[in-house]
Amino acid sequence: MPEVTSTEPAIDGWFAVDDAGNPHLIGSKCPACGTYVFPPRENNCPNPACASDTLAAVPLSTRGKLWSYTENRYPPPAPYPAADPFEPFAIAAVELSDEGIIVLGKVVEGTLAADLKVGMEMELTTMPLFTDDGGVQRTVHAWRISS
After folding, report:
1. Please, are residues 73 and 31 in contact by the beta-carbon 8 Å criterion?
2. Of 22, 25, 29, 127, most Cβ neighbours within 10 A?
3. Distance of alpha carbon 103 from alpha carbon 119, whole angstroms
4. How far is it, in rounded angstroms, from Cα 15 to Cα 105?
5. Boundaries of every domain in the chain
6. Per-residue buried b or exposed e for 49-60, using 16+ beta carbons within 10 Å of the residue's own CB
7. At 133, phi and psi to the nearest 5?
8. Buried b (16+ CB within 10 A) or exposed e, 78-107
9. What gap in Å lies between CA 24 and CA 16, rounded to an integer?
10. Domain named ChsH2 C-terminal OB-fold: which ranges (predicted)?
11. Element (H, E) at 64
12. Which helix (H) or strand (E) holds 139?
């Protein structure tokens, strides 16, 4: 594994971190009907009853309720990076508290499906996904059980 020289998001524009290190997701909101969407995009309101073709970037809630979950027990196929040795990890679908949309994400290391229960409070964090050959540690948004 290469030495970490810097840290960057695995996908630009999906989350941001404030000066205190607190992350928030970046979504989009339709100014015409108020519909939220994640991941963010600039056009095409997802509400079939709305004809708006403009969406505005907005910060999303950092907390929500666990709507569903699963556990990934197999490494991804090439060319996707996987830890060696591969460790199973949980994936959570969290219903954001203010917007009501459901956002998928990995659950922090050390938390597996057996630790989760539908309806429990979750909060947003970030975690490393992998370190590329140039030493850039790629991070993703993730969920953890609220304390």
Report:
1. no
2. 25
3. 14
4. 12
5. 6-145
6. eeeeeebeebeb
7. -65, -20
8. eeeeeeeeeeebbbbbbbbeebebebebbb
9. 6
10. 58-125
11. strand 63-72
12. strand 136-145
The per-residue pLDDT for range 77-131, each reduced to its tens digit, is 888 777 788 889 999 999 999 999 999 999 999 999 999 999 999 999 999 988 8
Model confidence pLDDT, tens digit, residues 29-82 = 999 999 999 999 999 999 999 999 999 999 999 999 999 999 999 988 888 777
Whole-angstrom Cα distance, residue 147 to residue 144?
A: 9
**Dist. CA 72–CA 67, nearest whole Å:** 17
52 contact partners, CB below 8 Å, separation of at least 6: 30, 31, 32, 33, 45
Cα–Cα dist 18/36, whole Å:
22
- For residue 116, give both structure tokens: 């989760």
Residue with tokens 């950092």: 62
Phi, psi of 32 (to 5 degrees): -80, -45
Residues 6+ apart with CB under 8 A from 88: 71, 72, 73, 112
Instruction: Look up residue 48 and give its DSSP letter.
Output: T
Residue 20 DSSP class: T
